[in-house]
Structure formats: C-alpha cells, structure tokens
Amino acid sequence: MANQWKKLKQPSSLSLSPSCLFLSLLSFASLFLFFSIFNTSHQANSAKNKALYSKSCNFTDGQWIYDPSINSPRYDNSCKEIYKGWSCIGSKKSNALDIVKWRWKPYQCDLPQFDPLSFLHRFRDTNIGFVGDSLNRNMFVSLFCTLKRAPGDVKKWRPAGADRGFTFLKYNLTISYHRTNLLARYGRWSANANGGVLESLGYKEGYRVDVDVPEGTWAEAPSFHDILIFNTGHWWWAPSKFDPVKSPMLFFEKGDPVVPPLSPERGLDMVLKHMISYVDKRMRPGTTVFMRTQSPRHFEGGDWDQGGSCQRSQPLSPQEVEELFSLKNNGTNVEVRLVNQHLYRAFEGTKFHILDISHMSEFRADAHPSTAGGKKHDDCMHWCLPGLTDIWNDLFVAYLSNVEDRT
C-alpha cells in the first residue's frame, strides 16, 4: 500500500514542473499584455485621429505648401483600378512625383493625411457609395488604392446598379461607384410624326431628361449605403454633349414635357430638388449624405475642343485663380462657380453635407494628366492618380469626423 501511495505521489509525464508552470503563466501574461496594449493603442490612435479635426476650423480656406519631405506617394501606379489616362507616373508625366509633394494647409488648423488602417477599423460593416460622373470615379479610385495598401483581402463586388465596387473582407467594408452624368434619367428624343407640344414649338430632336426620375444606376443606392457622396455638374455645361440647337436638353416632369422649355441651369435646379426628396425618403436611418462641390477644369487658351491646354508644373497663385475662375471674367473654366451657386442654394437646410473641394482644387492647374492622358486633346479636367483627389479624401474623412456619429 505504501508503495502504491508513493507511485500516486510521483509526478506523471503530463504534470508541469514549477519552472514550466512559471513559463506558461508568463507566456499567457505576455499575450494578455500584448493584446491589451494593442487594443488600447488602437483606441488611443482612433481618439487621437478624431481629435486632430477641429470642428471650428474651415478646412477649405488655406494654401498649398511644397513639402520635399514627402518622399513617396501613398500608393503607386501598380494599383490596377487606376484608369490608364490618370496614371501620370505610369505615363511618365514630367511632374508626376512632384504633384504629391504639395500639402494643403488650412490657415486655422491642419488637415492630416488619413490613416487607411484606422479608416478600415472605424468603418467596419459600412457601405460607402460614390454617385456621379467620372470625377467621382476619380475620387473613388483614390480611396480604393489608399485602402488597398492596408493588409487584408479585397473582393470585387458590386451592389445593384454600381459600375464597380470592392469589399474589404476582414472589415466587411464595401465601397462602390455608381456612374451617372445628370443624376436624372435621360436619353435621345425625336419628334413624333403625330405631333405634340414640343413638336409644335419646332423641336425635332434632343435629349429627354426626366427631372423626377433618378438614373437607374443609383436608384437603389440610398437604401443600401451608409455613406453617400454625390456629384454632378460637368455635363450640365457641356454644349459638345447637349448642343442647345442640334441636341438640346428637353425636360419632362411626371411624364410630360415642361413648357415653356427650361434652360439647362433651371433644369439642374429641378433635378436637384427631386433628387433631395428621393434620397430623403429612401435612405437608411442614420445614413450620412454628402454633395461634393464642382471639380475645376484648367483649360487655358481655349476649351478642350478649341486647343486648350494645361501645361503648368506648379499650383496657381491666388491672382491667377481669380483670373481663371472669377464669374465677372466669364473665363473658360467659369462653370465651377456657376454650378456651385446652384448646389449651395439647393442643399441649404437639407440633410446633405456640402463637401467643398472647389477652392483648394482651383489652385492645382499642375495636377491634371494634360498630354499624358492619352487623348487627342489635353485632359485638363480629370486628375492624376496619385494626386489631388487623395487630398479630397483627407477632407472627406475630416468632414466625416465632424459629422455626428451615425446611430
């Protein structure tokens, strides 16, 4: 019996020695400490990033400062989503690497570069939609290429109507782009042989624009996305698309032509009014909606089809900005401020937040693809990637941080 008791008291092969037990406890303690520090650090960084954005600061009032310490862009031309005509590094535009060395400095505060990993953590389980013309695609691609630098798998996936979209699987964050030129549905119109109101006024052909019907590409977007960024404008002042004589815009409401026919700018006002109502009725509870202001063009010496070009290698001075964009000068690029007048008037007092990128962008005549865009004419409308639209996204994140938390 005594021998059996001694056997029971002997440690089995599965028992831990005091030294092994100590090491095990130390390992668990280390792991616990690591994850605690990581979590605390992430929370601290999130709080710190949020604190960087002053609610009292006007982020759009500032100046561009050349910063040679910026050694590399936040992504490069290996990001496959970049449209070839916007890849100024790939096209070897002479100032492509200099474009990103200009930093926007608001007079009253700083606009920090947003951190992609913090963004992915903060907007986990969120759907973000860009709705608009190719300039909103410019901004969408910039955001995608920046976020893609963070670790994690990305899957191509498009919600209903979207032109393109991606899901960052680890965070269940989806971003997508819904292409629309006018926001409203439109298509070719030809006179009816049996006559009608427009026919009686002498119209033979043009484009029918239904001011109260959203284009199908984004009709479902308000009920899917948690954050929406809209834009429109360039196509409204595009006589090459809607010639006022040969192919005018003809506006319809509730299926009937609006008589007397409206000018494009009055048609824009009607579309914006109906679009605001449509989004307000269909958006999900707690959705944050932005209207991005007009992106400026920088054609000098004529418009795009009149030999206009943009050969600048540095941002414009304040005086040069006024010469190009002042309404009293009625210059080639005056559309930016004309469109913005309509946008500010339409969205005042609504649930939409204005994302004002216009003033900071007016200086950046150096940041377009120009001859590197691969077109028969200088591309002085879209922006090089990486480039200015990266700063738009910094501003977008700053605005988001100053919007009340979504419920």
What does this protein look like?
This is Trichome birefringence-like N-terminal domain-containing protein. It is a single-pass membrane protein. Keywords: Membrane, Signal-anchor, Transmembrane, Transmembrane helix. Residues 111-398 form the Trichome birefringence-like C-terminal domain. Helix content is 32%, strand content 16%. The protein contains 11 helices and 13 strands. It has a 7-stranded mixed β-sheet with strand order 4-5-6-3-9-12-13, with helices on both faces. The chain has a 4-stranded mixed β-sheet with strand order 7-8-10-11. α7 packs across α9 (335-347). By secondary structure, it is an alpha/beta fold.
Q: Could you give the topology of this structure?
A:
Blueprint: H1 2-9, H2 18-51, E1 62-66, H3 96-99, E2 102-106, H4 116-122, E3 127-132, H5 134-147, E4 154-156, E5 164-168, E6 173-179, E7 184-190, H6 197-200, E8 205-214, E9 227-230, E10 249-253, E11 256-257, H7 264-282, E12 288-292, H8 318-325, H9 335-347, E13 353-355, H10 358-362, H11 388-401
Parallel strand pairs: 3-6, 3-9, 8-10, 9-12, 12-13
Antiparallel strand pairs: 1-2, 4-5, 5-6, 7-8, 10-11
Domain Trichome birefringence-like C-terminal: 111-398
Membrane topology: Single-pass membrane protein
Family: Belongs to the PC-esterase family. TBL subfamily.
